[in-house]
Amino acid sequence: MSKNVLILPGDGIGPEIVAEAVKVLNVVNDKFDLGLTLEEGLVGGSAYDVHGTPLPEETMNKAKASDAILLGAVGGPKWDNLEDRELRPEKGLLGLRSGLELFGNLRPAILYPQLADASSLKPEIVSGLDILIVRELTGGIYFGKPRGIRTLENGEREGYNTYVYSESEIRRIAKVAFESAQKRNKKLCSVDKANVLEVTVLWREILEEVSKDYPDVELSHMYVDNAAMQLVRAPKQFDVMVTGNMFGDILSDAAAMLTGSIGMLPSASLDKDNKGMYEPCHGSAPDIAGQGIANPLATILSAAMMLRYSLNEVAAADAIEEAVSKVLDQGLRTADIFSDGMKKVSTEEMGEAVVAALS
Ligand code: IPM
Ligand code: MG
């Protein structure tokens, strides 16, 4: 049975890195006889430029009809000053996440041993690092209403957002986190701010409740400020971390840097049936867009996650991950992970090297 993959390159470096991931997907598609059909769509600023909206109906329909989605990145200075905030590129991404109910965001931070020197932390602190951040992706302060910027009676303006989580939203992400922990080292750290925020008092309570169904997983709780500190102090204490949308956004960037570069981190955003959208954790990096120097590995590894989680093609996923490890062994490095003695390569050369390592 043929499976449809929707490719959404997006903005900035998005098209450059996605092009390399598509080459890799085409190779495994043939090699493993996967029967994948790839189709492209527009999202973000590039969609706005053509259709006047960052999430055209056509893209949403294609996304709904697809078996999985691979996305590059969205956003850029060109669209930063759009008067109507609903038309900003980021709204395209957020619209896809919420429209497809992709509430479970998995962000693995794994240090490739070859890159221990690229981390800004000492090798002994990060070597062997393997953390999974489970981020709630369709709720919390990102989506809470009311929200906006209003003018008060005294003429001063005020910005406001709403931090809200329902019990069911907390319960379903908790299950994803406990199940992920069961497949790993069975340690789950839930990150909240229960000393200040009621939302996370409830979050903590529900996590305790759900933990009764997973007696083999050891649950702990940590305030987000401490978690940020612990991530850079002693990151190897963590196995799986689960947290809300905004804390997860912030902590996953910090965790990414432990691994040497955010250019290495893939992610999966899954719905309740494991249909998903896959994207690198990094943004559209407008400062380096068009220069051919971006690291395509996070996107290539996202394609591997897609094969593993949504398409059930484990052998093909393994092959891609091994190929990535092989090119790192060969000393090939894009600028973000470059260190002395290594060979600096372009986005395209890195993609081609992964393709070569696959055959
Ligand atoms: C991420 C990004 C997005 C987010 C932006 C681009 C809206 O930072 O995926 O982490 O905040 O979720
Ligand atoms: Mg982010």
Automatic annotation (TrEMBL):
Q: Name where it mostly resides.
A: cytoplasm
| Catalyzed chemical reaction(s) | (2R,3S)-3-isopropylmalate + NAD(+) = 4-methyl-2-oxopentanoate + CO2 + NADH
Domain (Isopropylmalate dehydrogenase-like) spans: 4-354
Q: Which GO terms describe its biological process?
A: L-leucine biosynthetic process
Q: Which residues bind substrate?
A: R97, R107, R135, D225
Q: Which residues form a coiled coil?
A: none
Cellular component terms (Gene Ontology): cytosol
Query: What is the protein name given in its UniProt record?
Result: 3-isopropylmalate dehydrogenase
* Functional summary from the UniProt entry: Catalyzes the oxidation of 3-carboxy-2-hydroxy-4-methylpentanoate (3-isopropylmalate) to 3-carboxy-4-methyl-2-oxopentanoate. The product decarboxylates to 4-methyl-2 oxopentanoate.
What is the cofactor note? Answer: Binds 1 Mg(2+) or Mn(2+) ion per subunit.
Compartments, record wording: Cytoplasm
The species this protein was found in: Litoribrevibacter albus
Could you give the subunit structure recorded for this chain? Homodimer.
PANTHER family named in the record: 3-ISOPROPYLMALATE DEHYDROGENASE (PTHR42979:SF1)
One of the record's GO molecular function terms: NAD binding
Q: Which cofactor does it need?
A: Mg(2+); Mn(2+)
Pathway of action = Amino-acid biosynthesis; L-leucine biosynthesis; L-leucine from 3-methyl-2-oxobutanoate: step 3/4
> Which keywords are on file for this protein?
Amino-acid biosynthesis, Branched-chain amino acid biosynthesis, Cytoplasm, Leucine biosynthesis, Magnesium, Manganese, Metal-binding, NAD, Oxidoreductase
Q: Which Pfam families does this chain map to?
A: Iso_dh
Q: Where does NAD(+) bind?
A: G283, S284, A285, P286, D287, I288, A289, G290, Q291, G292, I293, A294, N295
